[in-house]
Structure formats: structure tokens, C-alpha cells
């Protein structure tokens, strides 16, 4: 088969699957590691963006979902379930439908971005909106999976995180070494856990000689890891990371501590500034949660915690088209101008 085979085949020796299992893949992984000239200039560092919106369903979740659904299919289960702020549900629905499985998704009512809802609908998921937040949805999903023959495919399913390690490996393979610092948005804290596991695995096998410091950034209204205690009513424009009680809390703290990294909070205002800057200066349209890593990069560059000259990777976790409403809200300084076809050149001030 031509081209990139997806992460399970690309990293076959590192991503074990059950004997004889049929691999369920949509060709995830192999996403761009894009040099960011403007951010590099602003920070005095060499900054790269790991553009995870380029995955098949538009977020990094696909790296773990190929593994989770491959295992679920091999186990003979008929259905999978997840709680989600939108991206996990879109990814689960796509991979499960590809495998001929039913997907049930539990989402917080009115708090998932439109593009993500559109995906779950089109992939044919059973969508249940819960009057509560992500943490309530996850508690319910865990209970359903414990009581009924349905597999939980949230990142508390350990095989999800095995697949997500592949992003760290791709970065090291591309750079020929690990970056000095890795910046990530943190919600339920599975991804920072997976990246750290991926880096330490490569270091243990001597593929790389150093590991990066892990910088995890949360939205100020949903920053339990920064505060050191759960947030009962998390609130942020970055709905993807509107999580008050991260499931992978301990392993995220371990990643931060063992790497000499940090957790920091960034305001919604700074997140939206980074969101616009990424689109306008780097040509990279991401969803608001993804811009949290870049807002954190700029914050730590300004206060001196980001050493100049570092090689930094910021993961931008999801595509901008996931959340078109936020792109248009408050970001359009000039309303699209209605013009007569004959007046286009004049309107653009072309001579
Ligand atoms: N960025 C995006 C776009 C996400 O969708 C998520 C998590 C994160 C960052 C944070 O990753 O949870 O591993 O720390 N979204 C989950 C979901 C909660 O349901 O799609 P994390």
C-alpha cells in the first residue's frame, strides 16, 4: 500500500496490538512540524509547531483512537463510549464507524464547538448531551463501561496514550533530537502524559540523548493543575480544555516534575490573541484550545522562564475549522464588504 500507513504500522515495534488484530486506521500521524518564523523572532528561540489539526478528523486524538479502536474491534465488543469536549467524540465516531462498531458519546450540553458536533452527527454517533460539564460526562461514561458491554475510549484507556506517544517520536525523528522545551495545552492531561512517555521511551532506547522540559498550559478559568486542586465549574472560551478534574492528574505532575517543566495558566484574552496571531502571522488556523500552548510560549518568553536560544515545539492540537463560531465572533474587525463585481479592484485599492 502506498504512502504513510498510519501510526500503528509506522511504529509497529512500539505500538503493540493483539495478535491477528485487523488494524483500524484512517492514515493518522505524519503531521507537519512547521517552523514558525514570527514566533521565533518574538521569543528569540527556534519555534516549531506540531500541526495536529492535519490528522484525519482534525485533532491529535486520532493517534490514540486508531489503537483504541483496533483493540476494541479485536476484543469482539459491539460498541464504544466516550465523554468528550468534542474532539475525542469526533475521532471515536470516525474510527468506530470504520470498524463497524457503534459509538455513544456523552457531551456537555451547549459546550462543544459546532464543527465537532457536525462530525459526530455525520459519522453516525449516538450523541447524548448531558446537563453538566466534561468531568460529569466522564464519570457517567466510566460507569456505563463498567456496567455494560461497551469499551471506554477516553484517554483513561491506556492504549490511547500508547498511540499518542507517536507525536513525540515523529518530532524527534524530524529534528534528529528532542527539542529543549515542549509546550502543550492541558485539559484532561492525557496528551502531556503521552508525550512525556514517548520522549522518555526514546531516551531509554538511546534514540535521543536528552529529553525536553514539559511546559503545560491551562486556561485561567479551568486550571486545576496550576491551582493544585480541582475546579468545580471550569469556564473558558477554549471549550476543548474546559476540564476541572483531569483524569491523568498524577502522571501530568510527574511529567512536569521529572522534566523540570512547569504548569501555568493563561487568560482567555491571551489565548484569543495567540489564536489570531497564529492565523495572521504564521498562516496556521487552529482551534482556541490549541492556541493555549502558544499563549503560554509568549507568556514564559516575556517573563524570562523560556531561555533564549532554545529549540521549542508547541503542539497545536486541533484544526481551526472545528470552531468556526469563535473565528467569526469578535474577530472580524471589518465586516465583509458588499461590492458590485465591477468595483472589486477599486475596493482592494489595486491600480
Ligand atoms: N487540545 C484540544 C483541541 C483538545 O481537544 C484537548 C482535549 C486538549 C487540547 C487537551 O488534551 O485532555 O489530553 O490534556 N480534548 C478532550 C476531548 C478533553 O474530549 O476531546 P488532554
From TrEMBL:
Cross-link (Isoglutamyl lysine isopeptide (Lys-Gln) (interchain with Q-Cter in protein Pup)): 143
Gene Ontology biological-process entries: isoleucine biosynthetic process; L-serine catabolic process; L-threonine catabolic process; threonine biosynthetic process
Tagged with keyword RNA-binding: no
Record flagged with keyword Methyltransferase: no
Pathway assigned to this chain's UniProt record: Amino-acid biosynthesis; L-threonine biosynthesis; L-threonine from L-aspartate: step 5/5
Catalysed reactions listed for this entry: O-phospho-L-homoserine + H2O = L-threonine + phosphate
Pfam families: PALP
Necessary cofactors: pyridoxal 5'-phosphate
Domain Rhodanese, first and last residues per copy: 80-123
Modified residues annotated as N6-(pyridoxal phosphate)lysine in this record: 61
PROSITE patterns: DEHYDRATASE_SER_THR, RHODANESE_3
Keywords assigned by UniProt, alphabetized: Amino-acid biosynthesis, Lyase, Pyridoxal phosphate, Threonine biosynthesis
GO molecular function: L-serine ammonia-lyase activity; pyridoxal phosphate binding; threonine deaminase activity; threonine synthase activity
Residues holding pyridoxal 5'-phosphate: 87, 187-191, 317
Protein's job: Catalyzes the gamma-elimination of phosphate from L-phosphohomoserine and the beta-addition of water to produce L-threonine.
Stated name of the protein: Threonine synthase
Organism whose genome encodes this protein: Saccharomonospora viridis (strain ATCC 15386 / DSM 43017 / JCM 3036 / CCUG 5913 / NBRC 12207 / NCIMB 9602 / P101)
Organism classification: Bacteria, Bacillati, Actinomycetota, Actinomycetes, Pseudonocardiales
Amino acid at each position: 500500500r502506498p504512502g504513510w500507513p498510519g501510526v500503528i504500522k509506522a511504529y509497529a515495534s512500539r505500538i503493540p496490538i493483539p495478535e491477528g488484530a485487523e488494524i483500524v486506521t484512517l492514515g493518522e500521524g505524519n503531521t507537519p512540524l512547521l517552523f514558525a518564523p514570527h514566533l521565533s523572532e518574538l521569543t528569540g528561540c527556534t519555534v516549531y509547531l506540531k500541526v495536529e489539526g492535519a490528522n484525519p478528523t482534525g485533532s491529535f486524538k486520532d493517534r490514540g483512537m486508531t489503537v483504541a479502536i483496533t483493540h476494541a474491534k479485536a476484543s469482539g465488543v459491539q460498541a464504544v463510549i466516550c465523554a468528550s469536549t468534542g474532539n475525542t467524540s469526533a475521532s471515536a465516531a470516525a474510527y468506530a464507524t470504520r470498524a463497524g462498531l457503534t459509538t455513544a458519546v456523552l457531551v456537555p450540553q451547549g459546550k462543544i464547538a459546532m464543527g465537532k458536533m457536525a462530525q459526530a452527527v455525520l459519522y453516525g454517533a449516538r450523541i447524548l448531551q448531558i446537563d453538566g460539564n466534561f468531568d460529569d460526562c466522564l464519570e457517567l461514561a466510566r460507569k456505563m463501561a463498567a456496567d455494560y458491554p461497551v469499551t471506554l475510549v477516553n484517554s483513561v484507556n491506556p492504549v490511547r496514550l500508547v498511540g499518542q506517544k507517536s507525536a513525540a517520536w515523529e518530532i524527534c525523528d524530524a529534528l534528529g533530537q528532542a527539542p529543549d522545551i515542549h509546550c502543550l495545552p492541558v485539559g484532561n492531561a492525557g496528551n502531556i502524559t503521552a508525550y512525556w512517555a514517548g520522549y522518555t521511551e526514546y531516551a531509554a532506547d538511546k534514540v535521543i540523548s536528552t529529553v525536553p522540559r514539559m511546559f503545560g498550559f491551562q486556561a485561567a478559568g479551568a486550571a486545576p493543575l496550576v491551582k493544585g486542586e480541582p475546579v468545580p465549574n471550569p469556564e473558558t472560551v477554549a471549550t476543548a480544555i474546559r476540564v476541572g478534574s483531569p483524569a491523568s492528574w498524577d502522571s501530568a505532575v510527574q511529567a512536569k516534575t521529572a522534566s523540570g517543566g512547569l504548569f501555568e495558566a493563561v487568560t482567555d484574552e491571551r489565548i484569543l490573541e495567540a489564536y489570531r496571531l497564529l492565523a495572521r502571522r504564521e498562516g496556521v488556523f487552529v482551534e482556541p484550545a490549541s492556541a493555549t500552548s502558544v499563549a503560554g510560549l509568549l507568556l514564559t518568553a516575556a517573563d524570562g522562564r523560556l531561555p533564549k536560544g532554545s529549540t521549542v515545539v508547541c503542539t497545536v492540537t486541533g484544526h481551526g475549522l472545528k470552531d468556526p463560531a469563535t473565528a467569526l465572533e469578535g474577530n472580524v474587525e471589518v465586516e465583509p464588504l458588499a461590492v458590485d463585481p465591477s468595483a472589486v479592484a477599486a475596493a482592494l485599492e489595486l491600480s
